[in-house]
Amino acid sequence: MILQKNSKVALSGRDFYHLVSPDQIMYCQKEYTHTRFYLADGEEIIVPVTINKALQVLGKVTFIRSHKQYLVNVRYIKGMQLSGKSELTLINGVILPVARSRKKAVTRFLENNIRIQIR
What we know:
globular, 3-stranded antiparallel β-sheet, CATH 2.40.50.1020, 5-stranded antiparallel β-sheet
């Protein structure tokens, strides 16, 4: 279960309760009915919650759904491969897929919220 209080997110399971700032979460990966949270310090936390619920709690301002299996914190995106197989590269070198059905939305989101265009 995930609860949000005072800018911290409680990632809890049957035998643990872990408080993290949403800024510490680099990305999330769907694993059946659970979600694996990858933190900036390298820690991984598996929580029995769907990725859709994680998106509801974390918010659509900082996190974007790039693929049915991935939810990405835009603060950690280093770049996006647009030609061929679309992929997001994170600042730690991790490469995550962008679904064809989500490519336009991800590109639009990045252009509107992050990119400084130099022409």
